[in-house]
Amino acid sequence: MELWLDTASVDEVRAASRFGVISGITTNPSLWAKSGGGREYRDVVLEIASIIDGPISAECLSQDVEGLVEEARRIAGWHPNVVVKIPIDENGLEAISRLSREGVKINTTLIFSTNQAMLAGQAGATYVSPFVGRLDDVGEEGMALVREIVEVFDRYNFPTRVLAASLRHPRHVVEAAKAGAHIATMPYAVFQAMFRHPLTDAGMKRFLEDGQRASGVKV
Ligand code: E4P
Fold first, then answer.
1. Which of 75, 88, 107, 140 is the most exposed place for a label (fewest CB within 10 A)?
2. Does the annotation mark 105 as catalytic?
3. Which ligand 1 atom lies nearest to the CA of residue 85?
4. Kind and range of the H or E element at 2?
5. What is the C-alpha to C-alpha distance for residues 23 and 109, in angstroms, rounded to an integer?
6. What was the pLDDT predicted at 217?
7. Is 108 in the pocket of ligand 1 (CB under 6 A)?
8. Phi then psi for 43, rounded to 5 degrees?
């Protein structure tokens, strides 16, 4: 399973990139606003694309089909690695079908059901993004949706990749991997939490102290 960062913060992308394990980025308008705003979305996405050599999702804001198609074509032209995010509704689905036939890579966002995922897959979307945390927030089991989409896509050999999104904690990342998601996209804080374990810290401290004692260095 690939690990992607869910952020529009160039600083976070740069900080995470040094480990060489992040292979893509997802952004959305809320993350763009949270990153401080004031900069053109295109400029933010292009700076991220200069740091990470992998798919970078950038989201459309248009509501009607023609607007979505035009905006998506424009966003796709920003950089070869840009993937256009389109929310799944009737207009979104029509736009996804048309754009996919033109070869525009689409990440279908705001997926909350397997039916939505199947429609997006049939329409030719490259990715579907089930939102795990937001389903958990309303008392459903978000990861069950990831499992079901993976099962259906596997059974019928859909080429569409399942991108587990709206992950809120490191256990979600493990559960996404067990569910068979192709990609997990996570906030920077969740990525950082993947490193940590108190026993690792305690073990390192003890190894250092014992090593210094063995070598005669005063601890
Ligand atoms: C995914 O592409 C979305 O940007 C993101 O995962 C949404 O997460 P949230 O529900 O924490 O806002």
1. 140
2. no
3. 2
4. strand 2-6
5. 19
6. 72
7. no
8. -65, -40
| pLDDT attached to residue 219 | 56
Please give the average per-residue pLDDT across 160-186, as a whole number: 98
Residue of 89, 80, 106, 85 lying closest to 161 (CA atoms)? 106
- Interhelix angle for 10-17 vs 188-195, to 10°? 20
Can you list the alpha helix ranges (DSSP code H) found in the chain?
10-17, 29-34, 41-51, 65-76, 90-101, 114-122, 132-137, 142-155, 170-179, 188-195, 198-214
Q: Which residues contact 212 (CB under 8 A, 6 or more apart)?
A: 218, 219
Q: What is the mean pLDDT of residues 114-118?
A: 98
Does 79 sit in the ligand 1 pocket, CB within 6 Å?
A: no
Determine which residue's CA is closest to atom 5 belonging to ligand 1.
166
Q: Which residue's alpha carbon is at the smallest distance from atom 6 of ligand 1?
A: 166
